[in-house]
Design a protein that fits this description.
This protein is α/β, with parallel strands linked by helices and 327 residues long. It folds into two domains: 32-159 and 256-325, Rossmann fold; 164-235, Helix Hairpins, CATH 1.10.287. Helix content is 44%, strand content 17%. The protein has helices at residues 45-53, 81-84, 103-119, 131-139, 145-148, 160-177, 179-183, 207-212, 218-252, 264-267, 271-294, 318-325; strands spanning 11-19, 22-29, 32-39, 58-62, 89-90, 123-127, 149-157, 258-262, 305-306, 312-313. The protein has a six-stranded parallel sheet with strand order 5-4-6-3-7-8, with helices on both faces. The chain has a two-stranded antiparallel ribbon with strand order 1-2. A two-stranded antiparallel ribbon has the order 9-10. Strand 1 (11-19) and strand 2 (22-29) form a beta hairpin. Helix 11 packs antiparallel against helix 12. GO terms for molecular function: AMP dimethylallyltransferase activity; ATP binding; ATP/ADP dimethylallyltransferase activity; tRNA dimethylallyltransferase activity.
């Protein structure tokens, strides 16, 4: 069972400020809240974002620089409509495949989306592995993001040796789902894969296979196919390592406050055992962290938080409520 808690704009108490011998009543308004879900490719960022969105009325903003483009849903591992479970998503497959979409484009578009979401009194959850996008959005002085929003960063982490095995299995699964046929229309005879969705891992790796597909014998085609799949696995692992390096830099050098959730045991399990471990080690702790972030810091000053069913929940009790909700 899941309990949804309506967002509310939290205000600090009214304070008196001396002004020309008279008391001026001023209300301090707290900044809007934004949750960021980080992690390497394949670690479970999308899954966690949906879990959180079932606890807190939310909308999700994609921060993956390739998933913003239309096309290659299998290759880029876009979350499906069924997996989205009705949660609104922004910047997911909305940009034309051959267009450029810069860091500044992301910052402008995601800022507009966040403003729209908060105006609807919902929680923006920014999710993706393109940490350069996240860094530009939150640390660029032009956007003044930190002066406008309180930010909570959650990092879904998986031990690299375990993640590599999972990534390899995921690429095999993509192959059986039709990855090759999906990639074929994006083949470029001149080998230009520098723009739009063609930058996705998988497109350049299949260049030689598609270039010789019509003329090569079966043995050669099989060898080229296996080589392309192997390169996708290798390059995806390289990407994961690069992403982890950036997260550690943000945490250790730039001193971002990031909550790390170790999902490694989940990836060592299968079936219901893995699902139970995910709830216990990732989903439930994350929900409690978000609950504290949204409500507990102001529990002395707030009235009740109202749930989607009309249930009123004291902010200080949000931990116990969410503990029950995520069991």
């Amino acid at each position: 069972m899941t309990i949804s808690l309506f967002m509310c704009r939290v205000t600090q108490p009214i304070i008196n400020v001396p002004c020309s011998g008279k008391k001026l009543i001023v209300r301090q308004i707290e900044k809007e809240k934004v949750v960021v879900v980080m992690g390497a490719t394949g670690a479970g960022k999308s899954r966690l974002s949906i879990d959180l969105a079932t606890c807190f009325p939310s909308e999700i903003i994609n921060a993956d620089k390739i998933q913003v483009f239309e096309g290659l849903d299998i290759v880029t591992n876009k979350i499906s409509k069924e997996e989205q479970r009705g949660v609104p998503h922004h910047l997911l497959g909305t940009i034309k495949p051959n267009m450029d979409f810069s860091v500044n484009d992301f910052c402008d578009t995601s800022s507009e989306a966040i403003d729209s979401i908060t105006r609807c009194q919902k929680l923006p959850i920014v999710v993706g592995g393109s940490n350069s996008y996240l860094e530009a959005l939150m640390d660029d002085d032009d956007y003044k993001f930190r002066s406008r929003y309180d930010i909570l960063c959650l990092w879904v982490d998986v031990e690299m040796s375990v993640l590599k095995s999972y990534v390899a299995d995921r690429v095999d699964h993509m192959f059986y789902k039709g990855m090759v046929d999906e990639l074929r229309p994006f083949y470029s005879p001149n080998g230009d894969y520098s723009r739009g969705v063609k930058r996705a891992i998988g497109v350049p790796e299949f260049h030689e296979y598609f270039g010789r597909e019509e003329v090569a014998d079966e043995e050669t085609k099989q060898r080229l196919l296996e080589q392309a799949v192997k390169e996708i696995k290798l390059n995806t692992c390289k990407l994961a390592m690069k992403q982890l390096g950036k997260i550690r830099r943000l945490r250790n050098v730039k001193r971002w406050h990031i909550h790390r959730l170790d999902a490694t045991p989940v990836f060592r399990m299968r079936g219901e055992e893995a699902n139970d471990a995910w709830k216990r080690l990732v989903a439930k702790p994350s929900a409690l962290i978000v609950a504290r972030f949204l409500y507990n810091n102001n529990s002395k000053n707030n009235a009740n938080v109202v749930s989607g069913s009309g249930l009123r929940v004291q902010p200080a009790a949000s931990e116990s409520v969410l503990a029950a909700a995520t069991c």
